[in-house]
Design brief:
Chain lengths: 253, 227
């Protein structure tokens, strides 16, 4: 696990994670207070959960994917990955160790969000509270199914291209899957273009993992059969992403 | 040579170079071929050739980073290839690098070697001079060999930025830790300070082994033969 330790110490040493961790801790409490919440104080708690999860998405896209892309680029162009290859560390092991080091730091951020959303915004009604807790766990699962493979992709693209290109491609894919597809869907309502329909079908529907509105509007947990379908879809997308990442990965430039 | 001894065996006919299926013109770039088998055991072996003749390519082929064009090299022992361009995170201090890569004895060895070759282990890697960065790579390679079984060390121009004093100290450290380690050291043929057990040369596309008498090369002759 030497590459894991080297990467982890490199991330921790740069300290940018601390800025995001502080924002994740503070902003869910601050941002809702910047709204006219006095008119309806009961909205304050769902708003806190919304802020917490939105900030986690922002951190995943703004910090985590950037770390992956730059680490892949740095280690590949500096000869570190070739060095570990000669020591017998396979491509798969290298990818896993780099991924794990980024995720070790990010796990703390996920925990902050999960705790804030679960325990500082939970409804007082026992039935709603139960649904709230389940929804948070479901959200966590779906969030991980989207973010974890995107991180592998960012690392892998970083090893092949440069950090900026790897980050741009991954962030583009993430934003398209989360928000762009919504616009495409609206456009397709009045358009029967086959190409655009195919694009819609084969696009990664990451927006399925976003359960923020369920929390904010207290819509209850996702029904289990529906969750199973979404998990299977995002799991399949994750496998494809990991497969592509494996093919793109390079130990040296 | 016993089964636990490290070694590098280059068979007769082995060819090194590059091949690419995407290149229409010259898909194969042959750099050198071994005309007779070469076997390297414990000790220090210099790899000598002029620029662009395939020194780094040979090291990378031995390390398994790039495939040979023909034949297969056999290595006994843990292989380490330390590239001349190996760089660590500029924000990390050598002490942090050693802590991340090594435990207990090896870490202690790394810190002691850093002290011996006068490397400031508490200065950020990015702020170190070229020579001091080279020292970090050398220390990483040497520390890993410490109590770690048979080792094959492939060092690509490890002295390119080192002053004579550091070079002498590394030379001394190598002499103290020779058992169970094959060191194939790529150097320019104008560094007549190094001792060696043998030398591998690449000249006119031929990979050859030069025997060394009394641990020192006849550098003048070597230089002339490479030209």
């Amino acid at each position: 696990m030497e590459l894991y330790k080297l990467t982890l110490v490199s991330i921790l040493n740069r300290k940018t994670f601390a800025i995001f961790a502080i924002l994740l801790l503070a902003l869910p409490f601050v941002l809702p207070l910047m709204t006219p919440w006095e008119s309806k104080p009961t909205l304050l708690e769902p708003a806190r959960a919304q802020a917490a999860w939105m900030l986690l998405w922002t951190t995943a896209i703004g910090w985590l994917l950037f770390q992956g892309a730059t680490i892949g680029d740095r280690w590949s162009s500096h000869g570190i990955l070739e060095y570990f290859k000669t020591l017998g560390l396979s491509r798969r092991q290298q990818m896993v160790q780099m991924w794990l080091s980024c995720f070790t730091v990010f796990a703390g951020m996920i925990l902050i969000t999960f705790l804030i959303s679960t325990f500082t915004a939970m409804p007082s009604d026992p039935v709603e509270a139960r649904h709230w807790l389940i929804t948070n766990f479901q959200y966590l699962l779906l969030f991980l199914l989207v973010v974890a493979p995107l991180l592998i992709l960012a690392i892998s693209l970083g090893t092949r291209f440069n950090g900026a290109a790897a980050y741009a491609i991954t962030i583009g894919l993430a934003l398209y899957g989360l928000f762009g597809i919504g616009y495409l869907e609206v456009f397709l309502a009045d358009n029967k273009n086959i190409f655009l329909n195919l694009l819609y079908i084969f696009s990664p529907h990451y927006h399925l993992s976003d359960l923020t509105s369920r929390l904010v509007f207290k819509l209850g947990a996702v029904p289990w059969n529906e969750l199973g379908r979404i998990t299977a879809y995002l799991g399949g997308t994750a496998l494809i992403t990991v497969g592509i990442s494996y093919q793109l990965y390079r130990e040296g430039k | 040579m016993s089964k636990n001894d490290p070694s590098i065996y280059i068979p007769e006919g082995l060819s090194i170079g590059y091949s690419s299926r995407f290149r229409r013109k010259n898909p194969v770039a042959l750099l050198a071929t071994a005309e007779s088998p070469i076997e390297l055991g414990d000790g220090r072996h210099l790899l000598l050739a002029r620029n662009g003749r395939g020194k780094t390519t040979l090291l990378k082929t031995i390390a398994g980073i790039i495939p040979s064009l023909k034949g297969a090299i056999r290595c006994e022992g843990t292989v380490q290839f330390v590239d001349e361009d190996l760089r660590f995170d500029s924000e990390l201090k050598p002490r942090q690098i050693f802590s991340a890569l090594f435990k207990n004895g090896q870490r202690q060895f790394a810190m002691e070697m850093a002290e011996r070759i006068e490397l400031d282990a508490d200065k950020a890697y990015g702020k170190l001079s070229k020579g001091n960065r080279q020292k970090v790579g050398l220390i990483v390679a040497e520390a890993r060999t410490f109590h770690n079984g048979p080792q094959v060390l492939l060092l690509d121009e490890p002295f390119s930025g080192l002053d004579f004093s550091a070079r002498d100290k590394v030379d001394q450290i190598w002499s103290e830790n020779e058992e169970g380690i094959v060191r194939l050291v790529c150097v320019h043929p104008d560094e007549p300070t190094l001792k060696a057990d043998s030398a591998v040369t690449i000249r006119e596309g031929r990979l050859e082994k030069l025997e060394v008498v009394n641990g020192t090369l006849d550098w003048m002759e070597t230089r002339l033969s490479l030209n």
